[in-house]
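Hey everyone, long-time lurker, first post.

I ran two proteins through the pipeline my lab uses and got sequence/structure pairs for each. Pasting them in order. The first:
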Amino acid sequence: MRPFSFERATTPAGAAAAAAERPDAKFIAGGTNLLDLMKLEIEAPAHLIDVGGLELDRIEDTDDGGLRIGALVSNTDLAADKRVRRDYGVLSRAILAGASGQLRNRATTGGNLLQRTRCPYFYDPNQPCNKRKPGSGCAAIAGYSRQLAAIGGSKACIATYPGDMAVALRVLDARVETVRPDGQARSIPLADFHRLPGDTPQVETALQPGELITAVTLPKPAGGRHFYHKVRDRASYAFALVSVAAIVNADGTGRVALGGIAPKPWHSEAADRELPRGARAVTTALLADANPTRDNAFKVTLAERTLGAVLAQARG
């Protein structure tokens, strides 16, 4: 790990302003992903801004009947909150499907959204990777790509977004609240928060330099039955090959998002409209533009079958 300087922020706006003054700085809270990347020198910030002491650790009711989740709420506390378990069960189930108990105790809501891909070529500094070193190339495209994106990738990158929580937040139509270095607040739909790689895979979110996540907001409960099914290579502590977050109403309508298959949580309203027609109709619409590799073509079928299992459970 390379040497770095360190400071503790006292206000969200102050943290954002400090980060804007130091382009080589990173925010740190739980550090569950960033510290690993620093040890491997994939991330090498010269300055860390500790935001862990900011008062962003509460879950509050909103005036419109939803919830406002502070960016520093731990994954453990969020999954256990009685309002989340009762009204947003897909979120609680997705969090509990990810990581270990120890990691969930440290990981935060804001940091979870910013976790970086687990593409093996991203983690290997001996391999070219446009996400780690822009312009160097992508070893994954001609390499072993079983875990990587079957849709949404580009000629520059086929890495997947690794998280579970964000897939549930996508199906819930969450929004991300931030503060900019000038102190102005912003609210970003989660649908627009994570970016597709295009020609700039190193730019992974809609955050601007110095911008700090302060909260995630959920609309009022959507009702319906909530599901999160995650298919992985072993029973615990593994990232998804494919995951399905779904809210299914009694009449068969609802919403669906996929994880593990694209560079961001994958959702389309056109596919939601197909839900009463079954899993094949939904996945045909949702993955119409899929461009899988030889190694990961199975993910298209796996997504349909995983959704089929969810819908069978919903029918009871």
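...and the second, right after it:
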Amino acid sequence: MHNKYKIIILAALAILSAALFIGYDLGYWQYTLPRRIEKVAAIVLTGGAIAFSSVIFQTITNNRILTPSILGLDSLYLFLQTFIVYIFGSTNIVIMNKNLNFLLCVSLMIIFSVLLYILMFKKAGKNIFFILLVGIVFGTLFKSMSSFMEMLIDPNEFQVVQDKSFASFNNVNTDLLYIAAVIFTLLGIYVWRFTSIFDVLSLGREHAVNLGIDYDRLVKKMLIVIAIFVSVATALVGPITFLGLLVVNLARELFKTYKHTYLMMGSLLLSVIALVGGEFIVEKVFTFSTTLSVIIDFAGGIYFIYLLLKENKSW
């Protein structure tokens, strides 16, 4: 089957999932309908941000195991939130004004992404073990520092931090929905211009440089884009570690192509189907006895181990 038809089928499934989630058992629709639409919009933005950031990150690292979450970028976002509460308190305008808080965290994430580029990509080259090791160390370090500061702060402020620390599709941060939608749309249009360049970049650094691509400058730009995408996803629902790994690799298996036009669109649609369809099953079938993030992280963790063992055999 041609990849265009696969995209159409996935788009139809994504729309069907969204329609089912919004329209099923509406009850008092004047109250229920707007909230469900907001929730689906937040899920679509989260899924799209995770999918795009994961595809781009795997392309610039030239490895299908690594994602921004595995490298600890979402842990960094939560650490920054904890740090801001620790320094300013939960009643400060930086915390109370969610848009200001979000923009401040995005700015700090951009600064970190530039440092990440200098430390890991410019000096370490393509050493995948080094990148993976540093990512795990960073993730653990940020989580440990967050836990340490949470023990020192006031219980009320601790609750504020906890609300931001766990992925929850029942408590979507709708205050950031509009600014997140604007940022995601602008970034999506921006990165879409690079899809053909990503095709060349996936050949590796040497081939890309030989074919005339300014590799270092492009990687630096894309790390900043990835940091903003991760901030959008984490700010809306919290961290979902293995979603990017799952949907991007599923898209690669499904489309069997190097073209990022299909990989990015396919990953986005698979992400929306997984999140909206999964949340519908969790709410209506499991009646909230578990959470979607737990199911995704469980399946993703197993798949991550499988990929590691598979790569190990190939070496």
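Reply from user beta_strand_b:
Welcome! Quick read of the second one: The chain is about 80% helix and 0% strand. The mean pLDDT is 79.
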